[in-house]
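Researcher: I'd like a candidate sequence for this fold, 70 residues long. If you have to choose between options at a position, lean toward the conservative one.
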């Protein structure tokens, strides 16, 4: 998140938690979906579904070490 040098570390951490994916990761997700299902989803739909998938896994796994607030 070096794109925003004026943001505090807390703000950067909150942004990372809110959207834990990079454009490259979403592109890879789209490629996997395309390869496995022959569905070519729009980029915006891929972002939504990838974020939902990450949220589902985080719910199933429970608290992760990076979720700790000291």
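Model: Candidate sequence:
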């Amino acid at each position: 998140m070096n794109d925003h040098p004026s943001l505090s570390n807390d703000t950067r951490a909150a942004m990372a938690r809110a959207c834990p994916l990079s454009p490259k990761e979403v592109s890879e997700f789209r490629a996997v979906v395309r390869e496995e299902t022959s569905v070519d989803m729009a980029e915006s739909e891929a972002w939504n579904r990838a974020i939902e998938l990450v949220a589902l896994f985080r719910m199933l796994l429970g608290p992760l070490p990076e979720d700790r607030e000291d």
